[in-house]
Amino acid sequence: MKNITDSFLCLSYWPSAGSFGFDTDILATNLINLSVVLGVLIFFGKGVLSDLLDNRKQRILRTIRNSEELREGAIEKLEKARARLRKVETEADRFRVNGYSEIEREKLNLINSINTTLEQLENYKNETIQFEQQKAIHQVQQRVLQQALQGALGTLNSCLNNELHLRTIGANIGMFGAIKDKKN
């Protein structure tokens, strides 16, 4: 067996070129085999590898473009949402201001309506009091008149005799007859 250092240090020793055989020096043959395999891989694999890298690059660029489009769409939607929010806030402020003024107007209308109703109730109360007073006065007058008539009848009955009574009735009938004739 050869020494490992012999194959690296003694570069002037090469076997004869005319013979074909197996080289038993594992380290030297592995380096040559590796370099040949790497050369073949680089020569033939370069196209496949570049195609894979190009495909990967295209996918990455497509993903970046899609992301940019999505980002622009999101920004556009965000701006639309902000504009809508501003519009809604403005409308809400307008409704709030209109609502407050409407509330104040309704409050004043309610106060005026209540005042009108109170005035009407006061007038009804005064009319009712006046009506009740007139009714009470009329009742008192009726009672006084009734008592006066009863007193007068009592006095007349005690003072009148039959003859005076018949003359008074006759005179009253005569007065009623004269009134009746005037109407016809």
UniProtKB/TrEMBL annotation:
User: PANTHER family from the xrefs?
Assistant: ATP SYNTHASE SUBUNIT B, CHLOROPLASTIC
Write out the annotated subcellular location: Membrane
Please state which protein family the record places this protein in: Belongs to the ATPase B chain family.
Task of the protein? F(1)F(0) ATP synthase produces ATP from ADP in the presence of a proton or sodium gradient. F-type ATPases consist of two structural domains, F(1) containing the extramembraneous catalytic core and F(0) containing the membrane proton channel, linked together by a central stalk and a peripheral stalk. During catalysis, ATP synthesis in the catalytic domain of F(1) is coupled via a rotary mechanism of the central stalk subunits to proton translocation.
Q: Keyword set for this entry?
A: ATP synthesis, CF(0), Coiled coil, Hydrogen ion transport, Ion transport, Membrane, Plastid, Transmembrane, Transmembrane helix, Transport
A Pfam family this chain is assigned to: ATP-synt_B
Establish whether keyword RNA-binding is in the entry. no
The topology of this chain with respect to the membrane is: Single-pass membrane protein
A GO cellular component annotated for this chain's UniProt record is: proton-transporting ATP synthase complex
Could you list the residue ranges that cross the membrane? 31-49
Which example biological process does GO assign this protein?
proton motive force-driven ATP synthesis
By what name is this protein known? ATP synthase CF0 B subunit
- Tell me one GO molecular function of this protein: proton transmembrane transporter activity
Its source organism is: Carmichaelia australis
